[in-house]
Design a protein that fits this description.
The complex is a heterodimer of chains A (343) and B (399).
Chain A lengths: L5 E14 L2 E14 L3 E5 L6 H9 L7 E10 L2 E2 L5 H7 L4 E4 L13 H13 L3 H14 L5 H4 L9 H13 L5 E5 L7 H18 L2 E6 L2 H7 L2 E6 L2 E7 H6 L4 H8 L40 H4 L5 E2 L9 E2 L4 H9 L8
Parallel strand pairs in A: 3-8, 3-9, 6-7, 7-8
Antiparallel strand pairs in A: 1-2, 1-4, 4-5, 9-10, 10-12, 11-12
Helix pairs in contact in A: 3-4, 3-6, 4-6, 6-7
Chain B lengths: L2 H11 L5 H10 L2 H18 L1 H4 L6 E4 L2 E3 L1 H5 L2 H14 L1 H14 L4 H23 L9 H4 L5 E3 L11 H4 L21 H37 L1 H16 L2 H11 L6 H12 L1 H15 L3 H8 L4 H13 L1 H23 L8 H10 L4 H28 L7
Antiparallel strand pairs in B: 1-2, 1-3
Helix pairs in contact in B: 2-20, 3-11, 3-20, 6-8, 7-8, 11-12, 11-14, 11-15, 11-17, 11-18, 13-14, 15-17, 15-18, 18-19, 18-20, 19-20
The chains are: A alpha/beta (343), B mainly alpha (399).
Amino acid sequence: MPPNDILLSVRGLTTRFFTEEGVSYAVEDISFDIPRGRTVALVGESGCGKTVTALSILRLVPDPPGRIVAGSVLLGGGDLLKLPEPQMREVRGNRISMVFQEPMTSLNPVFTIGDQIAEAVVLHKKVGRAKSLDQTVAMLRKVGIPDPEARVREYPHQMSGGMRQRAMIAMALVCGPQLVIADEPTTALDVTIQAQILDLLKSLQDEIGMSILLITHDLGVVAETSHDVAVMYAGRIVEQADVLELFDNPLHPYTVGLFRSRPTLDHKGPLAAIPGQVPSPLAIPPGCPFHPRCPLSDGAGCVHERPPLEPKKEAGTPGHAAACWYAGRVAELRARQEALYKS
Amino acid sequence: MNERTREVGEMLAGPPRSYASIVWGQLRKRPSAMISLGGVLVLAVLAVIAPFIAGEVPIRWVQDGRASWPILRYLTNAEYSGMLALALALALPLTMRFVRPRAEAAGASPWLRAVAIHLGAWLVVTLTLLAVREPERRYGFFLERAADVESAWFPPIAWSHDPGYEELAHRDQPPSWRHPLGTGRLGDDILLRILYGARTAMTIGFVAVGIGSTIGVLLGSVSGYFARRVDLVLMRIAEIFMFIPTLVLIIIILAVIPASVPPLWAVVGVIGVTGWTGSYRLMRAELLRIRTEDYITAARALGIPTWRLLLRHAVPNGLAPILVGAGFGIAGAIGIELTLAFLGLVQTPSWGEMLNDGRQNLEFWWVWGSAGAIIFLTMFAYNLLAEAIRDAIDPKLKI
């Protein structure tokens, strides 16, 4: 990734869940950077550890059974994982905030929208109720909610899904955070509203300049909104590049499979799925976690040695890294216009 | 969105409706609930202003050309306090209207401010009364002297709590114009006893259940939210309390308390302190559910501190079953007091005491009949109300 001014730096983050059925390796040794003012997308299927990563950054992982066992999250020179809880509360909502997936359930039903948002302001900005309400109304207007003075006194059940998600975004932004973590912000919304919300996020980023960590499984959303992308599989980052490079030149077989499985308008015949199943975090295969499903797996190195995430020479840009022993082969097959997955 | 669409939308949606107002709206649709609520309110009001309705102290007394208001001297501090509480509760909407403009400008809840003001006023007055006033206790012989003075305005049911010699002639009388519900063994008026018995029932009901619910809500929310070890310990403590047979404990305590402690407060105290387990379990279950809800995680993600999260964000969402439990709990508490009085363990005027008296002379049906009827009606009303609240908070109203 382009070495801009880096806002947040995750290094070697490892989060595990210690349950009765065994240890769940939710997030395993992941590292990535979030530059100032840019959007980084964390892509992957359900269960690959994207949400746990986000929760780990904010230290919201339920403990027990979860625990961040290793790694560091560096924000402005300090490691968030080592902060005492009161200071961590200062960070939450204030310097890093989060937008959740389900707008229906992320707002407290017994409070008005105004109450909930203003509470964050009062807590972090230490202003009085009246001023906090002014800021709330201003923020609601900024996220495109019409007639915010009236909306402020409304309850969540009186608003539509799109409106609620806008209110959530307002709540996340009202204290002026440097980073907004958006966990699948549009998954629960209609397609047309999706587009509006994504546009909103982009324009807010242009205006305010905050960084966004966008968690999604939708590659289309990624293409629309992100600058840099990290692809996750089974708790690990398997490929990392800026968005144009990733879409042009994916080097990890899993990424290739993801792109391939998307239906296009002129697609005929059955959809091409990646053969096999995503492994349960309780039983992650040794070596490369993708090897049971990978067409390039050699049965030897792929099974025994975990490929490191490192920049590949086949990449078009210097920051493009992939965790595969055979990234070169992927690039070669593409150059020869040969299919990687025979189906 | 253009102006016209918005206007239509607002007309359809109506003004912002809080959770409480939605529940109230549901409740209003049910006639049985409204009647029960009305009945309970009437009983509460009667209980509070009882001395003005029935008793031996006149409201106005003119003797030797001088007018006085004896009842004001004889009312106890507790009675004044109770009347003030009732008046303040009824005046709440008025105060709310008064504070609304300033409260909303500051973004605070007018309801909360009004309650705070009233609570403060009530506390100040009550404590002042307790500190400076001693009510008149000497027997005034007003009924006996009534014929000799210029004017005496007695309460509508003017009989003595402690009937004197003359009244003995009228003992064990069935209902008549003079005594609408008849008289008891000593010539005491049954209607008067019913009225004053209502006080005991209301006090036990509201105060005991109030104490119990408050303890239960606090402990239950802590238990449910933090779970694991805290919950383990608290649940075991609750189970110990659940084992305690309340009735037996009350009897024991009544036996050992010094005579200066009014037995009614001992009963109230014990019911409150042992009865918290019901609301504890309800609150705990609700919190175990609520702690997994997204809005709690979202609030934590905003940096809200834990105690605030618990009390302000989590607890209000879980209060619904507590209301239901309280309704049934009040009926239950009245039942316990009944049992004690029936066994003759509590000396305050009470319906249970009347049942006991009536039991010994079943042919004087008006004694146990009136008590039985009012007990039945009261408990029926509370049960109906509790059921109605339970239906009103049904998820079907969660939009």
